[in-house]
Amino acid sequence: MKYLITVALLMTSLTTLGNGLPDGHPEGGASILPADHDIPKDEFGKMVRQGQLIFSNTGQFAGAYVGNDLSCRNCHLDQGRKAGSAPLWAAFLSYPAYRAKNHRVNTFAERLQECFVYSMNGKAPPLGDPILVALESYAYWMEKNAKINPLLQERGIPQLQKPGTPPSYERGKTVYANNCALCHGTSGQGRRANDGHMVFPPLWGDRSFNWGAGMAHLNKAAAYIKTNMPLSLGGSLSDQDAWDVAYFMDGHNRPQDPRYTGSVDETRALFHRTQNSLYGHLVAGHVLGNDPVSKN
Amino acid sequence: MYKTKYFERGKASLKALLFLPLAFGTHAETSLSQPLISAGGEGSKFSEAACAGCHGNEGDGNAAEGIPRLRGLSATYLREQLQAFASDERKNPVMNSIAQTLSTDGITHAANYYAQLPPLYRPLGVKAESDNELATHGRWGENIPSCDDCHGPEGKGVGENFPALNGQPALYLENQLQAFQKGSRPPGPLHLMENIAKKLSDADIRTISLYYSGSTPMTTGGQP
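^ inputs. structure came back:
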């Protein structure tokens, strides 16, 4: 409902200004996305709804490809709509694209597969699988029915400047206790509702994203946390606090990188040669990536 | 002194006053009037009879009077609320007086007693699709996650700190959202709830309170 009102207001102001942009496209402001009740009630709409279900309850609707307790919406907020959390509709518009991670041009479907393998600690649904088709339909529907700011400023996660002081595990621990443990639990395990649903997703440990995920990189995690956490209070942490708590979160063990070669040193040399990954480092008495972590 | 307070505190308090004779008329009479007289001493123990007149048997609540259901809420949450009533940080003349008569142990016993009773949930329905927009989708443009994001699916509550909204009287929910806005109730952990309540309009509050109160008959649910 709110989307519609905003559309109406914006369209009025645009007509008055006559800024020459295509119908209803906001110039400087945020893109305007369709609401769920705009999903068509036809065969295509059914696929869109299915995609949304998978996105929101990934373990329930795509269980064979999921190896943790997360759902896509846990990171891509507002069911893949929210700017600042790598929104799905903006991603849809940005592929095919070259990816340094695998040194080739990836399609959108391949990018979806990647989040299954790393963020969801699972397996890639094969190309053409109804699960990927449903997610693509959902992303396409959102994009097609949006009034998109042509600059596409909402894509990805806004970068965060390097911290004034190198991030610290100890300081991060305090930030975590004061701002995060209430929801994500004192040992990052997350929290379920009284009826068993996972409500506050796990941040580390066996049931979280694995070492290959974007969120396991300090720069991505810090930027994500700064913009979006604590939930509903995004932007309230200082940059330093965001880096420190990202370091604390990513300074814990989590499921093994699926590209693991059998040696932490070698895996680090091949895939984690960046200051933004703590994989293979000694943090708080553990060599990260070295603990036996069950997959599934 | 505690009667004049009612007239100073607006709608919710007046309602409570009108309702009082009823409460005192039932089995609440002895247990409630006694501790009130002896207030200032060590405080009294907890006896369910002192609460049942208003909160119903086994803490079922009273929808018409906007008195909350207590059963199945977490012990931590209940204890914190009783402490906040006792210290006048959460302002409600009736509950302030009652909580001030309870000893520290009395508060703990009351909280533990209601926490161990199985919760009651109601099936939630909507008339229009927008009725549960805030509850299940939120309004992220204003940084309002869905209520269910913190209070759990269908508002059934999460852990110790996020109370169930499901099945609470609409009038009670409305009063609380206004209390967070006005500051007549503490902001809660990380000021999360105060911050969200302040972004809600009167119309939002009415719609969302009605939604979580549930419109169809009570069913037992959840784990004991």
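The beta strands of chain A are 97-99, 104-106, 191-192, 198-200, 282-283, 286-287. The radius of gyration of chain A is 20 Å.
thumbs up if we can close this ticket
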